[in-house]
Amino acid sequence: MIVVVGSLNMDLLIRCERIPAPGETLLGEKFETAPGGKGANQAYAAARLSRGRVRMIGKVGQDDFGRRLRENLAGVGVDVEGVREVEEAPTGVAAITVDGRGQNAIVVASGANFVWRRGEAAGMRGMVEGATHVLLQLETPVEVVGVFLRMAKECGAMTILDPAPARELPRDWWPLLDLVTPNELEAGRIGAAPEEKILWKRGEKGSRWRDVEVGAIAVEAVDTTGAGDTYNAALAVGLSEGLGMREAMRMASVAAGISVTRVGAQSSAPAREEVDAYGVSW
Predict the structure, then answer these.
(1) Which residue of 44, 85, 246, 269 is surrounded by the most CB atoms within 10 Å?
(2) What's phi and psi for 17, nearest 5 deg?
């Protein structure tokens, strides 16, 4: 079982010719709402790609956005028992501007994602037990991430952290982390890191772990939102199925490559059949 601990946001997307400069107002071309949040994106993509069970742990508000996010995950088979509603804050939202090249700029209002009571995370150990891989990000309180990291290792799971939004990671996390997957912007912000635990996501240049380098597939990008989340999800799926790192990274590159040819963070996640049909032998 793959467990994802992290954020659930409703994405508010505006497409425009270019991303505006500070103080500048532009007229956009299109507005839409779409399920997002790095945690939910990874859970959704993992469920689309995996032949096993996927569980999501996180927080939403008692509002329509929260209901829609839970239903969207459940619709692809994600176990949402660990997605709890809170009264104190609305569901998180992310304002996303996507330019004509498919690049994006994102501002997140975390809302319910940061409403965790003292001891609550530790009380959810049963949600982690039985997991082979646990995916985490930094869109929830850092102390909550730390609790789930410790529980994951105590339960024998492999831990994969997407260090976004980028920040220096606590030193006592490194013994608990199996893989950290920064992009090129995040890589310089996570602090001193054991090289063997870093898998560099390099966009159109592919990815690298230790001496293993895997190229990206050649596609015309429409929207890069959620591509890194799809990569992490596919990586975990591949590893959970017994693939070696090189093969799992190839699978992740194909999945992420397909995702950037479509609009949206979760709606762009490919089905397993699409990835397998790409012609790569894992």
Answers:
(1) 44
(2) -60, -40
